[in-house]
């Protein structure tokens, strides 16, 4: 027992002695704890199953034991490695504290999960699994859409579940005609006898198996660390742990706590990284919006200035026309009908004034054209700023996805190293 404590870096409590101050034990984050039976149990310190690139939750009840949540994530990753782009649809697990969960009879202690079927439509695999009733011939209908049960990916999912090195699957409930279809497929592709036998055992028909023709119902055994509070009912398969000693249960429980601490901290670091990226992206978007607003304000100011200049030019033109007309009337009063030289001079003056008016109108048109070009340029700048903001958003999203994949890869490496030890 002491060696188990040292292996996980925990300090055993020291009995209090007179005059001796007991050392303060380090605070330990609790691992998930499944209590009672699956149909009348509880769940403490549950882990939450979250959607990612290979898995999507389609129901609000996503709490389970650490072993179950890890099993589902690893199984979804295994299928996605064989069929790129596949996403496992996960229905109900358990409530945050366990207990009754409508409309299920079980799902009370964090060890049950409903998984959708992978399907094919028009000869192409659908990226995301779905909850859809499968008929005897392997077909499924949803309105006008017709689907076919995807034997390959669903078999890969079953193999990933029963071969998982951490969580021990007790059974997978599914309709007998679907079970028979999968076993025929397994033998057709030459699957190993051990895998076929293990799948046959965990999918053996049970009460209510017929009702599971639109999803897999997966249940895992109690982990050693959750015993004796966690209880299993038959069937008890050959890989069942049996009844471990109290010392073994305590040692495993302490090791489970250490693994839970590492996993929770890793997930917390990943969430904090996502939040930092989101905050940085939001600040960048806010800055770009302010710049766009400044450009719009500047555009409005320039348009107002151009309008004032245009109004001033128009006023000058009207004043010039009025002066010309006054001069014409004055000249007519002073010049006689026979004075041809003065008449010719007046006509020349009139032509000069008309040329001046045309020049003023041309200047106004040039100013208006220049204003339109300026407005168009500012609009282009605003569009470029918006595109830069969108590009930065995409880069931030890719960086967040890279960080999540890196964290998951590190977790898998830690688990592999733990299993090797």
Concise account of the structure shown:
By secondary structure, the protein is of the alpha+beta class. The protein has helices spanning 2-7, 66-82, 151-162, 176-188, 193-202, 246-334, 340-420, and strands at residues 33-37, 40-44, 47-48, 55-57, 63-64, 88-90, 112-115, 119-121, 124-125, 139-142, 145-149, 169-173, 216-220.
3D architecture notes:
By secondary structure, this protein is α+β, with helices and mostly antiparallel strands. The chain has seven helices and 13 strands. The protein folds into two domains: 2-7 and 27-244, 2-Layer Sandwich (Muramoyl-pentapeptide Carboxypeptidase, domain 2); 278-336 and 354-409. 54% of the residues lie in helices and 11% in strands. Mean pLDDT is 82; it is low at 1-28.
- At CATH level 2, the architecture of the largest domain is 2-Layer Sandwich
Secondary-structure element series = HEEEEEHEEEEEEHEHHEHH
Strand content: 5-15%
Rg, please?
39 Å
- Supply the CATH class of the largest domain: Alpha Beta
Shape assignment: elongated
Helix content: 40-55%
Mind summarizing the main beta sheet?
4 strands, antiparallel
User: Helix count?
Assistant: 7
Quick tags:
421 residues; alpha+beta; Muramoyl-pentapeptide Carboxypeptidase, domain 2; 2 domains; four-stranded antiparallel β-sheet; three-stranded antiparallel β-sheet; 54% helix; disordered N terminus
Q: Topology of this structure?
A:
Layout: H1 2-7, E1 33-37, E2 40-44, E3 47-48, E4 55-57, E5 63-64, H2 66-82, E6 88-90, E7 112-115, E8 119-121, E9 124-125, E10 139-142, E11 145-149, H3 151-162, E12 169-173, H4 176-188, H5 193-202, E13 216-220, H6 246-334, H7 340-420
Parallel strand pairs: 4-6
Antiparallel strand pairs: 1-2, 3-5, 7-13, 8-9, 8-11, 10-11, 12-13
Helix pairs in contact: 2-3, 3-4, 6-7
């Amino acid at each position: 027992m002491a060696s188990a404590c040292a292996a996980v870096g925990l300090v055993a409590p020291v009995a209090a002695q007179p005059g001796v101050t007991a050392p303060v034990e380090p605070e330990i984050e609790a691992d998930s704890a499944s209590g009672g039976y699956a149909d009348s149990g509880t769940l403490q310190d549950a882990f939450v199953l979250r959607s990612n690139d290979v898995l999507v939750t389609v129901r609000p009840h996503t709490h389970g034991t650490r072993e179950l949540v890890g099993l589902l994530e690893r199984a979804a990753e295994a299928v996605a490695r064989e069929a790129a782009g596949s996403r496992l649809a996960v229905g109900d697990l358990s409530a945050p504290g366990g207990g009754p969960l409508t409309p299920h009879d079980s799902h009370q202690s964090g060890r049950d999960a409903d998984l959708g079927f992978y399907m094919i439509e028009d000869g192409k695999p659908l990226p995301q699994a779905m909850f859809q009733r499968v008929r005897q011939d392997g077909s499924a209908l949803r309105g006008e859409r017709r689907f076919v049960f995807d034997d390959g990916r669903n078999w890969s999912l079953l193999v990933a579940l029963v071969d998982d090195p951490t969580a021990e699957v007790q059974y997978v409930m599914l309709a007998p005609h679907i079970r028979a279809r999968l076993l025929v497929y397994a033998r057709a592709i030459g699957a190993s006898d051990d895998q076929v036998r293990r799948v046959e055992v965990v999918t053996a028909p049970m009460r209510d198996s017929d009702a599971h023709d639109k999803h897999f119902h997966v249940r895992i055994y109690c982990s050693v660390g959750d015993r004796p509070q966690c209880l299993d009912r038959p069937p008890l398969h050959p890989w069942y742990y049996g009844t471990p000693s109290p010392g073994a249960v305590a040692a495993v429980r302490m090791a489970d706590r250490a693994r839970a601490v590492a996993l929770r901290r890793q997930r917390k670091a990943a969430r904090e990284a996502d939040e930092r990226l989101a905050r940085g992206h939001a600040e960048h978007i806010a800055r770009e919006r302010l710049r766009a607003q400044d450009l719009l304000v500047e555009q409005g100011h320039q348009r107002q200035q151009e309008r004032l200049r245009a109004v001033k030019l128009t006023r000058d033109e009207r004043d010039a026309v009025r002066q010309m007309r006054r001069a014409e009337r004055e000249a007519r009063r002073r010049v006689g009908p026979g004075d041809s030289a003065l008449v010719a001079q007046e006509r020349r003056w009139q032509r000069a004034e008309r040329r001046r008016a045309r020049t003023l109108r041309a200047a106004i048109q040039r100013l208006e054209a220049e204003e339109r070009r300026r407005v168009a340029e500012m609009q282009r700048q605003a569009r470029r700023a918006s595109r830069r903001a969108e590009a930065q958003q995409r880069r931030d999203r890719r960086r967040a996805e890279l960080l999540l994949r890196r964290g998951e890869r590190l977790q898998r490496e830690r688990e592999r190293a733990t299993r090797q030890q």
